[in-house]
Design goal:
Length: about 475
């Protein structure tokens, strides 16, 4: 029996010749072609450089290099070797993603996986103190030195009440970039912390480890006993509980006049500061005794004493310009005055400011949060950077100073306010001209809630409650009218 004689075959054959089947076939072929094309593109992208084939859509840019790291890699012209101490196939996926970004940016960097069980002699070359190197560590070796990054150092942790460790951030780029700087230059700046003013040491606030991560050596100096040491790359005075003595002020001025670098964070509780203000006045600044109270809802957090300040344009604050992602919080901040009488060579740049609605209170006997007749309206400068470009002599650095009027800044940073930590570290790295380290911080895994002021709430509410529903209603009504008249 022939196929054309089979009952119903003719009708089936004719059905394939209809317009509907032809158009459906074309659509199916087009769909298959698109799918095949996407598969081919995906395969080719997988073979391409991660720099080209990947787009980081994470909230905190977890798998992207900061601009400062990219600048460092563009300048790196010496050989640097990465050695991963793990068995093949046991590497940390997140770590390898970050390492691949470095490899794609600079051909002077190489990566090799070393099995520590099969190559104990290789590991011993880097284990100088014979304490052992944990499996999963990364060794960064350059021409001048090497540094070991352990698995624990690649993440930030918090300890719960039950004693468990929670991962709060990824510190891989921070650690690797710091290791690159050290391995390629062998330089570790020494930062001296002024003691003797009854202030809490940086180590007690948890900043000793952070400074070590950033290639700093932290030491202390008592200026009543000795001048600033010759190897000081910078000096910090953090939340002093008393004013400087005359000899301390004199030695600090001598250091600054020779091109020194100084970071001061002070609290209004030390009241009048004649000697400290004498040092600052030499460079056009003065602390004003009192506190700033904020009234603008977009600039306060809990109450008027807690300011969520505005970031002014500067290399220190540029990474903190997104106030929502990296908020800086100041409690009972003390304002700064920029003096008109100063040397012409001195340049002063405000870093942090309050809103114009803030007011300054000098009479602290009043506990009310409402404005008093004696209070002064803002805006107020809460932090400033000072440079004196006049070179003392050939090869001597220019003077740089950063002044912040919030003694609780680092205490809040130790409580998890990352913006405060970044403001401190960015200030320190700017003082050292190490701008490639600014913003190379651990990437937080926490997502901050969206903060909106009253105007933004009205705008977004109107868009989502009125505008969008109205658009859908009008579109539906027009479609109904057209169909009704068909």
């Amino acid at each position: 029996m022939k196929l054309k004689e089979i009952k119903g075959f003719k009708s089936i054959k004719e059905s394939f010749q209809t317009k509907q089947v032809k158009y459906g076939g074309y659509a199916a072929l087009l769909t298959v072609a698109v799918i095949v094309g996407l598969i081919l593109i995906n395969l080719m992208a997988g073979q391409a450089s991660p720099r080209i084939s990947q787009i980081d859509l994470t909230e905190n840019r977890l798998f992207s290099l900061s601009e400062q790291t990219i600048q460092l890699l563009e300048r790196l012209d010496t050989q640097v070797n990465f050695f991963g101490l793990w068995r093949p196939g046991e590497e940390d996926y997140n770590l390898m993603n970050v390492i691949n970004l470095y490899l794609s940016r600079n051909r002077n960097i190489t990566m090799e996986v070393i099995d520590p069980d099969r190559n104990p002699g290789f590991v011993m070359r880097y284990d100088h103190d014979r304490m052992g190197i944990p499996r999963g560590s990364l060794i960064v070796e350059g021409e001048m030195a090497f540094r070991i990054i352990t698995p624990r150092e690649m993440y930030d942790f918090t300890i719960t009440q039950a004693g468990a460790l929670n991962i709060t951030g990824m510190a891989m780029e921070q650690r690797i970039t710091s290791a690159l700087l050290f391995a390629s230059t062998g330089e570790t700046p020494v930062i001296y912390e002024i003691t003797g003013a009854m202030q809490p040491p940086l180590a007690a606030l948890g900043f000793a480890d952070l400074l070590e991560r950033e290639n700093y050596i932290l030491r202390t100096v008592n200026l009543t006993l000795t001048p600033v040491p010759y190897d000081a790359a910078g000096v910090v005075l953090i939340n002093p509980q008393r004013d400087l003595s005359p000899i301390e002020a004199e030695r600090l001025l001598d250091y600054l006049d020779g091109g020194g670098r100084l970071l001061i964070i002070a609290n209004y509780l030390i009241r009048e500061l004649p000697n400290l203000n004498t040092v600052l006045a030499s460079y056009g600044l003065r602390f004003d005794y009192g506190i700033v109270l904020e009234t603008d809802p977009a600039y306060l957090v809990f109450d008027p004493r807690t300011v969520w300040p505005n970031m002014m344009p500067h290399a220190i604050t540029a990474p903190l310009a997104d106030r929502v992602r990296t908020p800086v919080i100041m409690v009972e901040a003390m304002p700064l005055s920029i003096l008109e009488t100063r040397r012409h060579s001195i340049e002063i740049t405000p870093l942090v400011s309050s809103s114009a609605s803030a007011f300054f209170r000098t009479d602290l006997t009043y506990n009310t949060l409402n404005r008093l007749p004696s209070d002064t309206l803002g805006p107020f400068t809460l932090a400033a950077a000072v440079t004196d470009p006049a070179w003392v002599s050939d090869g001597v650095n220019q003077t740089r100073i950063v002044v912040i009027g919030c003694g609780a800044l680092l205490h809040l940073a130790s409580q998890g306010i990352d913006g405060n930590r970044d403001l401190f570290m960015n200030s320190l790295t700017w003082l050292q001209d190490r701008t490639e380290n600014i913003t190379v911080r651990a990437r937080s895994l926490f997502l901050l809630p969206l903060r909106l002021n009253l105007l933004q709430i009205v705008i977004f509410g109107g868009v989502f409650i009125l505008v969008i529903p109205a658009v859908f209603f009008i579109a539906g009504f027009i479609t109904w009218l057209k169909r009704r008249h068909l």
